[in-house]
């Protein structure tokens, strides 16, 4: 997952940096619209099929799946999993059929800030200053995760939290 997040930070960060350099501005609205066109049709289909299956075929925990469906469609499933202390590595539990969409929640939360971050970074003079700031922010995210772990945070908080996962995106963005 971390490698995927690093690559995502690198690729999308590179696209937005190039856009800013060529056009003088980041087209945040266009960025969000392209992302919605790519993600929402498939996400709607997956969530719809799972909800239909739950209603028709499987008894299951309908309220939980309905809540997970809403959280997946609004890109905060990762925090819903944190709230119920869902342990990703618990192989004996009956996980939500939507649990895998937690990564999409983290991505979309980061993407909300990415155009603003790129715009702000480009105000700094020099590539080294921008890179140093991103590396420092990634280190800050890693130190925050370590502090949370030392302070007794749950495994779900450390696994699904956007703030602790941000370090991977920031490393990719620094490389871009």
Question: Can you offer a commentary on this structure?
Answer:
The protein is an all-alpha fold and 176 residues long. It has 8 helices and no strands. It is flat. The model has no long low-confidence stretch (mean pLDDT 93).
Give a summary of the structure in a few sentences.
Helix content is 76%, strand content 0%.
Low-confidence runs of at least 5 consecutive residues: none
Structural class: mainly alpha
Give Rg in angstroms: 18 Å
Order of helices and strands: HHHHHHHH
What share of residues are in beta strands? under 5%
Give the N-to-C terminal Cα separation. 19 Å
General form:
flat
Average pLDDT reading: 93
The total of beta strands comes to 0
Annotation keywords:
176 residues, flat, mainly alpha
